Automatic annotation (TrEMBL):
Cellular component GO terms, alphabetical: membrane protein complex; plasma membrane
Protein family (similarity comment): Belongs to the ABC transporter superfamily. Macrolide exporter (TC 3.A.1.122) family.
Keyword annotations from UniProtKB, A to Z: ATP-binding, Cell inner membrane, Cell membrane, Hydrolase, Lipoprotein, Membrane, Nucleotide-binding, Transport
EC id: 3.6.3.-
Species: Pseudooceanicola marinus
Protein name: Lipoprotein-releasing system ATP-binding protein LolD
Lineage of source species: Bacteria, Pseudomonadati, Pseudomonadota, Alphaproteobacteria, Rhodobacterales
Amino acid sequence: MSDPVLQLDALVKTYNEGAPNEITVLREAGLVVNPGEVVAMVAPSGSGKSTLLHIAGLLDAPDRGRVAINGEDVTGLSDRRRTAIRREEVGFVYQFHHLLPEFTAAENIELPQYAAGRTRTEAAARAADLLERVGLSDRADHRPAELSGGEQQRVAFCRALANAPSLLLADEPTGNLDPATSDRVFDMLMGLVRETGMAALIATHNLELAARMDRILRMDEGALVAG
Ligand SMILES: Nc1ncnc2c1ncn2[C@@H]1O[C@H](COP(=O)(O)OP(=O)(O)OP(=O)(O)O)[C@@H](O)[C@H]1O
């Protein structure tokens, strides 16, 4: 059996500890995502989805608990090693695309690849391939402001996949789009995830989209339960 791509054990996270506005967001939250699995995380606003995704993606650390990516426990690792794992193994998609406005669609997909050591030629070829897969070859030289919301989000998916991560983390990836565009963009995301065989954890308020994933988890008082 191969290791889970993502394993979270008994995560606890409290903000503003000791202050009057202290809030414990995660209480012994745990989950396992296996290779090729697409898991939906459904929970109301403010229940801790983004906090959990940030911890899973090594952007934040829990107060207690364990995070393992592809079987490697990241808890005691140096910042440098954690950054390397994040860069190589994790792709993020957010509700708002966060593309760099001064760069073209292709450049936005090329930039993260330089950090991973790819040459300009390799990065450009990969960007062109990804843009073709989401039907945006003819928009490669456009800046984000020259693209529609759905197109921007498709570019953001390509950027997340630029370094061929084993884990995709998405926070309301279509939450900013109208329902028809959201459906189309979501299909594209699922197609890419299935094709590459990566694992994905996708937070969404949209129950119809969640129902199309392999499994649904709900956040219940800071823990994750099968939905
Ligand atoms: N850095 C922080 N400092 C203090 N409180 C925070 C911080 N980040 C989040 N919180 C609080 O923790 C709770 C959970 O926030 P989080 O963003 O994880 O929720 P969410 O489920 O992703 O919400 P949404 O669906 O609205 O994005 C909220 O009450 C929020 O105000």
